[in-house]
Amino acid sequence: SLVIRGEKDEQAVLCSKDKTYDMKIADTSNMLLFVPGCKTPEELNADEASGSVIHSQIAGFSNNYWELRRCRPKLKKLRKLLMEDPYEGPDSGKDQTSAVSHYTTEDLLSVVQASEEEIMHQLEVLDACKIEGNGNIQRQMQVLKLFFFFFPPCREMIEHILLSYGRKYTDDAGEVYFEMREDKICRAIAQMLLQNAVKFNLAEFQEVWQQSVPEGMTTRLDQLKGLALVDKNSRPETIFLLKVEDLPEDNQERFNSLFSVREKWTEEDITPYIQDLCSEKQTVGALLTKYARSSMQNGVKVYNSRRPIS
């Protein structure tokens, strides 16, 4: 089935079960006629197809039609809605006193411009958790910290954290085990360390970061792609939080935002921040060709904006 989604101040999109399409009115030089009960040649039986004339009533006509073009789902609104009222546990009085509405899956489907599969996938990416039927996103950084320091939250949250940050296994005896995902946990702890600092000395950050993760886990800078950016030109080198989900969804606005943060980017550095803009047949290289200008700097290809950044 198909559904049109969009509020009054939004450009409407058409959604199937798993895809989202922009809708645009296109003109045609051929007049389109609306004929109730109209049959195609394949639908006619042998007698009707032999050449007999069928009288039909024309109900209306049109000189334009809706043209559909596959587009990226507009998911930024999903995170914004869920973060309006983060879940703080069963003992918190906030849920009883909050005037902000909780959102069910059906509520999100009615206001977010994306297909059902795209919305459900994004909920997994956001580590959203259903609490008593409501799709409320958790303050996972806070809960994760408590979890590691053995101040356990409610059972419901413990299970959600284990599923979000680990893999579930069942042995031959039916015993359930969880193996924690090193990259995801290291990334989450790095975000906790960086979120209250404008910039962090890179060497000091790496030392504190390694000391903060559970024993046996190893931190690496490649775990922070799309989350934090290293400034190698500063002395000493620094690192700061730059989350891809906080950047604009529009292509040009995204590039404007990135070039306002840094004038010149290597392809390796900018790729995590524009990868999600690529359509099915579009590459990062094609995006850079369209929205950026390349040059060589100390033997390395870098990209800067094609237009002045205010």
TrEMBL record:
<dbReference type="GO" id="GO:0006260">
    <property type="term" value="P:DNA replication"/>
</dbReference>
<dbReference type="GO" id="GO:0034088">
    <property type="term" value="P:maintenance of mitotic sister chromatid cohesion"/>
</dbReference>
<dbReference type="InterPro" id="IPR019128">
    <property type="entry name" value="Dcc1"/>
</dbReference>
<comment type="similarity">
    <text>Belongs to the DCC1 family.</text>
</comment>
<dbReference type="GO" id="GO:0000785">
    <property type="term" value="C:chromatin"/>
</dbReference>
<dbReference type="GO" id="GO:0000775">
    <property type="term" value="C:chromosome, centromeric region"/>
</dbReference>
<keyword id="KW-0235">DNA replication</keyword>
<dbReference type="Pfam" id="PF09724">
    <property type="entry name" value="Dcc1"/>
</dbReference>
<protein>
    <recommendedName>
        <fullName>Sister chromatid cohesion protein DCC1</fullName>
    </recommendedName>
</protein>
<dbReference type="GO" id="GO:0031390">
    <property type="term" value="C:Ctf18 RFC-like complex"/>
</dbReference>
